[in-house]
Amino acid sequence: MNDTVTTAHAAPAPTEPLLDEVSIAVLSPGHPEVRPRWELTSPPDGPRMLSVRADGFPVEIRLSVPLGDAAGYWHPQGGWRRTLVADWEGLSRVCLVDGPAVGCLYEHSGATLLAFAAADPVPEATVRFGVSEENDTHVVHLTLPASDGPHRLLLVPRAPSVAAAMRPLRTWFAAAFPPMPVPDAARLPVYSTWYAFNQDVTAEAVEAQAGPAAELGCGVLILDDGWQLFGNGRGYAGCGDWQPDPAKFPDLAGHVARVRDRGLRYLLWTAPLLLGPEADCHDRWASSAPAPATVPGAFVLDPRLPEVRRHVVELCVSLVREYGVDGLKLDFLDEAAVYAGDGAGDVGLAMTGLLTEVRRALEAVRPGLLLELRQPYVGPGMAPFGNMLRSFDCPADATANRVRTLDTSLLAVGGAVHSDMLMWSRSAPVEAVARQLIGSLHAVPQLSVRLDEAPPEHLAAVRFWLGRWHRHRELLLDGLVEPGRPDELYPVVVAARGEECLVSVHGDRVVELDFAAYRRVLLVNGSDRDRVVVDVTGGSGLVAARVHGPDGRMMDDPLPLLPEGPRPLAVPRGGLVSLVLTEGPR
């Protein structure tokens, strides 16, 4: 990678027009004698395809676009940095398990100025990006490793929003990387033990949650960290043996069977690449795990070693077969990236081989297999290896859950997007409970509170919102979703399907209601106000309105006539109003 301070001082390369206002330059870093050739094609369906040939050499593809009215740059590793950054600080290193090479520059209207994705999301790559102060442009410099074939980049012409630009990319990736089958259980709410118990978990305590969880609408239970020997202290120094702690789970298989008898599928947490010095197997595997993990106490097994891959496959199969679970929560796969760039082999390619064998071996012993993956390893290249795509940890943060699940949904291929586990304190007002549920509304919710100790009003809110989620599941998970600008943190999210739409409002924003387009509208109030301001377009209409509070109780209904123009609707915070057009528009 070029180590200059800014991209303006990088090695020169001739620039040519590419698409819309985007310009391109290509070169082979470290090989000035190589002259890569590029071609842009326009398939009848899908994104444009840029092919760059460099005769087996690495390439650097430089894209630049005038700043215009640019507002932000979205990419999967962006986190909270989704506005514009300078090109001397914009940098991401990506591979299969550490986020794909994808980016989208957009303006204040929400329309895109540049949207791209590396067609092969597996190998290690580097993306340098940001505002070029010298040239008044936004640049992306994508460095790809040597390849026997062409280096390919997908490009989407100017689109009205980031979400609109990502849709053709998702379609292309779904065909290129056929996703793992998604059984219905992967699309059901989950009860997780993590925030409710952390590592202080026992069979009896989990079974006490199973019945209430099933009654509230959950279909899956995940036993998280703490079930295994040395699973304590909130560190990972004991990882590696993956044997049940007999004091906590004296009969793990019997426990799993009892939970499944309550109607719940069962997943078991494991972090198969972590190796801690307290594990009995540490000495055997220490030479295969030379690099420390980024999480405390553990080292990382190197997936490029054949013996490591065999070990991980055998471990996963033994957990599923011996304890009768329906699948695994595969955690910390992104730790493999600690080996990226060390010259000993591509981490992404090794993980592809490992996960291909894990899935094949597990499906042979467990039909309807469930595998949960977690940000950042939820990109299109991971579609064949997991069917539950979870948001990164954000305890009690409804905003982060909304943002992270929507970020994942922009590029999700096949698998069901899941929220991080929802938690709240026992003293929380019922509106706060509803806010957590509303923050995960556009994904599959996961709960992690002690349901057998929850106040009745909290359980009422959970029951109501999970009931609504079940009723509108196809709309929320399969509808056309428009969340708006990433830098605004998606304050108004619209999910539409046929004549029905659901709008979740998370700030003091005006919501456009177009009764010419939709006859049934559900407005969800995730804001801190006891009203939602709407702007009726497409003609006024008579509506049947029904208002619910955060715990589902019926409230006073608004006036049945909604004239054109703006007006407030009385909707309590944490509540909703359903509107059904009975006559109109006029």
UniProtKB/TrEMBL annotation:
User: Matching CDD domains, A to Z?
Assistant: GH36
**Xref: InterPro entries:** Aldolase_TIM, Alpha-glycosidase_related, GH, Glyco_hydro_36
Q: Name one GO molecular function term.
A: hydrolase activity
What are the entry keywords?
Glycosidase, Hydrolase
Q: What is this protein called?
A: Glycoside hydrolase family 36 protein
Q: Could you tell me which species this protein originates from?
A: Streptomyces narbonensis
State the taxonomy lineage: Bacteria, Bacillati, Actinomycetota, Actinomycetes, Kitasatosporales
